[in-house]
Amino acid sequence: MLALDGMPPTTMASLSRLLLRTESIASSKVEGLQADARALALAEAQRRAGRSVGRQVSEIIANIDAMEEAVQRTADARRLSPNDLLEIHAILMERDVTGRSAGKLRDSQNWIGGNDYNPCGADYVPPPPEAVGDLLENLCEFSDSEEAPPLLQAAIAHAQFETIHPFDDGNGRTGRAFVQALLRRRGLAPRFVPPISVALSNLRDSYIGGLVGFREGRVDEWVSFFASATARATDLAIHYHGLVVDLQEFWHRRLRETENPRSHAAAWAIIDTLPEYPALTVADAVKATSRSQPAVNQAFGQLERAGVLAPLSQSRRYRAWEPTGLLDLISNLEAGETS
After folding, report:
1. Is the separation of the CB atoms in 162 and 175 below 8 Å?
2. Which of 181, 212, 235 is the last residue in one of the domains?
3. Which end of the chain is more exposed for a tag (fewer CB within 10 A), N or C?
4. What pTM does this model have?
5. Per the domain annotation, does 325 fall within a domain?
6. Which of 67-76, 203-212, 239-248, 280-289 has the least mean pLDDT?
């Protein structure tokens, strides 16, 4: 996993954001929350512009926010506490229709499977609500320790979190964000988020089966599965780093062969930031490059004529563009494809 941090710094920031976004979306996918790649990219750009977006894409975007919050704040916390988990959950669930429980531990018994009225026939019944606080304190104490190897610690902490099931909803997404925070805290993934949820979503039945096995005492099987999923995620990230580099080289070549602007022109600076933006607006590019709006407007014209940018939204009041080839690359990454 540390091989990710040996990548060239020129693409580091862009790849970091791309991987974090992919991990977040895949984590939502495990819970059945999915959106078309272009629709989601456009919704992200619309939200940055202060426009309203649909409920389901809003939930997925919230997961991206929560993942970023987990790796930036929780990973740097001096001491882990249940409040860190509550903060992640609050960000995740603030846009959910059931958002009244965002950032709050459950105060009633819940269960997995069976029916909605009682736990009879449930696949799993978590601990009673009055035990949740103490169990989370114990989990955070374990997660703060450096006695166990980082990957083993993350595997056990995640499975134990899902076993406690401390919230009415959003347990899976919160637990997977917690994994990334732990890997960052222990220095195993200091700058990159390995898209572990991509592997987990593609092996959803085995993932759920592994958690069940953990609760039944088959800890070795669960740890082996989790380690294998993490290794696949790391290989996937390294593979897509190469594809991002190739795509940026293609964009540079297209711009040089068609428009060939001056070396300090805004168009070159925009290309450097494009992997962070599956959809972007002029305002996004102004903020990302610190160039003036007239310079960015000129650059967008050059990039569109060069075939680097393509219109994604034709509205006169709101225009967005997609970097050529990037959404296809992202869709393949989210699907875990390496061919």
Report:
1. yes
2. 235
3. C
4. 0.86
5. yes
6. 67-76
